[in-house]
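Archive maintenance. Older records in this collection stored only the sequence; we are now back-filling the structure field for every entry so that each record is complete. The fields below show one back-filled record exactly as it appears after the update. Entries are processed alphabetically, and DUF2384 domain-containing protein is next in the queue.

ARCHIVE ENTRY
Title: DUF2384 domain-containing protein
Organism field: Acetobacter orleanensis
Length field: 129
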Amino acid sequence: MQPATKSAPAGGATSIALKAVSRIMAEWGVSTPQAALLCDMSESTWKRAKKPRFSGELTHDQMLRLSALIGIYKSLKLYFDDPLASKWMTLANTGPLFDGKRPIDALIEFGLPNFIGVRCYLDALRGGM
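Back-filled structure field:
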């Protein structure tokens, strides 16, 4: 098992994941500060990472977050119709993982384990588990 501090080189999967998450954040209407927190980056790094020629490296933790966000997005699109699929992450939720918070806020507050929890929760809703 690799340590969380291990870096993923820029390019390839990293570039694709950053591009996808940038588009997801825009569709969900997530602010730059919130997007940076979700991706475990400073705002300045998030702004640079969204650009096509980003040459920085991401940690294993950051890549897991990007992957989970893409999976959450996919699950929402499969389970809900638009516009709910696009708004769900920013609506207050009384589900077991959220305690009345917006899913976005719960992800920021509780970190990577909650990313995985939300992904599993949505997969279970749509019958994938």
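Update note: Residues 78 and 126 are 8 Å apart (CA to CA). The chain has one domain: 8-125.
Entry marked complete.
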